[in-house]
Write a structure and sequence with these properties.
mainly alpha; 170 residues; globular
């Protein structure tokens, strides 16, 4: 894939990452909190475009969303999400060539959620390991549904997106 095509694809994923949560906000209920739509484009960027675009897309989605829409609030949520989602894209991009997609996703999700809780602890000045662990457990338990969706959607869609990108070369 050419650098231009990677840049355009990353830009489209970035736009989707900013717009998709707004679509979910229209629907009654807290679907954005349950589904975590900002996460998906970063996973796709890392898995399809590699670690550089994965971390770039992952960090820019919450930052731009916060600046453009005010959601999530920049401090502390968007700042922590920049770490978390950036790690998702980076780790997926680094591991997809060594492991299958499920292993890459699993490691990325664990690393990203640890990154989020660590960034939050740093910002809030939390030094208690007990509170850190409690926050990590809460982060995982609150994200179980999103993680299940990620393990279903991402392996289904990555090959289709890759095929679409390859067929656009002709």
């Amino acid at each position: 894939m050419t650098n231009t095509k990677k840049l355009v694809t990353a830009s489209v994923l970035l736009a989707i990452g900013v717009l998709l949560p707004q679509v979910f906000h229209i629907i009654p209920g807290n679907l954005t909190g349950i589904i975590s739509p900002m996460h998906l484009p970063a996973f796709f960027a890392g898995l399809i475009l590699g670690p550089f675009y994965g971390v770039l897309v992952g960090m820019l989605i919450p930052l731009l969303s916060s600046i453009i829409t005010g959601m999530p609030p920049l401090m502390p949520i968007a700042a922590c999400m920049m770490v978390e989602i950036g790690i998702y894209g980076l780790v997926c991009g680094l591991l997809i060539k060594k492991f299958n997609i499920f292993v890459a996703l699993l490691i990325a999700i664990v690393a990203g959620r640890i990154g989020y809780v660590s960034a939050l602890s740093l910002i809030q000045g939390i030094t208690s390991i007990g509170i850190w662990w409690a926050n990590l457990i809460a982060n995982f338990s609150g994200g179980v549904f999103a993680i299940m969706i990620q393990f279903i959607l991402i392996p289904l869609l990555v090959p289709r997106i890759q095929k679409a990108l390859e067929s656009s070369n002709h």
